[in-house]
Amino acid sequence: MTPIPFQNAYKTQQIKVFRMAALKYKLLRVSATLLYKILCNGPGTCLPLCVIAFFFKVVGIRWSSTFYVESIARVRRLSLTGLLLYELHMADKFFVQWPQLQRKYPRAHYVGCLM
């Protein structure tokens, strides 16, 4: 079994650049590496990465599967990042950790507590 390469997308504060430069950094990072699977867990910093991967998928440059896991702290409604990814159909699989969220957002998959 071959090991799967792991890429870490750093936060804007960690690379100490402005937001537009961080977006450019993430764009170059995604285009330079073969990302087959993207697993996001909710912070707003994952949104540019998901938008870039979705753009590449629509244009036909590269196909990446995007999986989004909503935070367990979100009981009644989705976070802003989750809502954007859900409503714009950017995530291939959308996971929630509460059954009431799955009833409210039918395309979401209820997986229970992941911790």
Automatic annotation (TrEMBL):
<keyword id="KW-1133">Transmembrane helix</keyword>
<dbReference type="GO" id="GO:0004577">
    <property type="term" value="F:N-acetylglucosaminyldiphosphodolichol N-acetylglucosaminyltransferase activity"/>
</dbReference>
<dbReference type="GO" id="GO:0006488">
    <property type="term" value="P:dolichol-linked oligosaccharide biosynthetic process"/>
</dbReference>
<protein>
    <recommendedName>
        <fullName>UDP-N-acetylglucosamine transferase subunit ALG14</fullName>
    </recommendedName>
</protein>
<comment type="similarity">
    <text>Belongs to the ALG14 family.</text>
</comment>
<dbReference type="InterPro" id="IPR013969">
    <property type="entry name" value="Oligosacch_biosynth_Alg14"/>
</dbReference>
<keyword id="KW-0812">Transmembrane</keyword>
<keyword id="KW-0472">Membrane</keyword>
<dbReference type="Pfam" id="PF08660">
    <property type="entry name" value="Alg14"/>
</dbReference>
<dbReference type="GO" id="GO:0043541">
    <property type="term" value="C:UDP-N-acetylglucosamine transferase complex"/>
</dbReference>
<feature type="transmembrane region" description="Helical">
    <location>
        <begin position="34"/>
        <end position="56"/>
    </location>
</feature>
<keyword id="KW-0256">Endoplasmic reticulum</keyword>
